Amino acid sequence: MVSVLLTTNPKPNSGFKYGFEFKEQALGQPASDQAVVKIQAAAFNHRDIWILKGQYPAIIPGSVPGSDGVGIVTSETASFKQGQRVLINPGSGWDEDERAPEQDFKILGLLPCIGTFTDSVVVDTKELLPCPEHLSTAEAAALPLAGLTAYRALFTKAKVRAGEHVLITGIGGGVALFALQFAVAAGAHVYVTSSNPDKIEKAIQLGAKGGVNYKDENCISELKKLLNGNLLSAIIDGAGGPLYEQYPRVMRTGGIIANYGQTVRDPAVHFTALAFIKNIELRGTTMGSRAEFKKMVAFVDAHKIKPIVSQVWQGLTEESVDEAVRTMANGEQFGKLVIQIGDIDSPHTPKL
Ligand SMILES: NC(=O)c1ccc[n+]([C@@H]2O[C@H](COP(=O)([O-])OP(=O)(O)OC[C@H]3O[C@@H](n4cnc5c(N)ncnc54)[C@H](OP(=O)(O)O)[C@@H]3O)[C@@H](O)[C@H]2O)c1
What we know:
Oligomer: single chain
Mean pLDDT: 95
Bound molecules: NADP nicotinamide-adenine-dinucleotide phosphate
Number of helices: 9
Low-confidence stretches: 344-352
Strand content: 25-35%
Number of strands: 17
């Protein structure tokens, strides 16, 4: 079977420290508590770009990248039928503790965890869940890592409830869009930031009340006007950076900032006197536990949420992977970038 492998030979002029190569690889034998999953589609995360740039911890050349995947079980297992469509939990070593992983936390896409940019993977059956029927193949591939991160940031960490006002930053991002969809489904009033007015408009179509451009130096004053006397209970942020100094101005006492990333070039954050005077909490968050993954997929199923897919490429080829990497590195997307890898006949295989 063909896999993408991380190599120390970056593409010329890419500016990356690492590159991807395509190689034939043998599939390992599953143990009795594992399943072989034939990957139908995989999705990109910004993590893949950080890895190519060499700006991610514990990078191991030879790893098969890819943290998101949907596929079909093709081996005999006690818990899943052959032909069943499943989602793969992108993390392992984290059962249910709300605070942090109980064990050494590992993520698909860096060794020792084989990622999803390949034809088939061997996965512990405890990390698999039946895929909700309403999701297309591309939507299903888009869900796992970003959906899990958004769910934990929003509900476990920021405690967002119906009727509250929430800001979600950088709405073009994969995690941010899930946070928007989940918060709207939970009955919160959602505001967004983006560098692109068209993305703010699309977010409004998805249920946001309004948005501001984070590149505009008056953006927090503009947000204050949009809030019309209301205050934010929560900010869900994957960027970091100088706006943290101003966020307390538009937050209620006891408000929570859940930070899951530092996309900004200079991500340094100022935690001001106003922040502690208002009892504001800054909470870091990373992905989530298996229990949260299960709750997130159940939430998506119950609310029939359809992940926003920006673009789908057909086939795991050098061309499709290069294009997806370029699109994500340039921030051109609105939603997830998906590669359809293969398909097999199954009653649970909807069209893309
Ligand atoms: N902790 C975790 O578990 C976890 C999980 C997933 C991702 N992350 C991290 O979270 C970040 C986003 O990941 P992703 O996969 O969702 O990325 P993505 O799909 O590539 O989205 C990145 C988005 O960041 C936004 N952005 C860029 N500069 C910004 C700024 N100054 N202020 C606010 N937003 C800004 C852009 O939004 P606009 O296009 O709207 O301008 C862009 O679309 C990355 O840093 C990633 O490593 C962490």
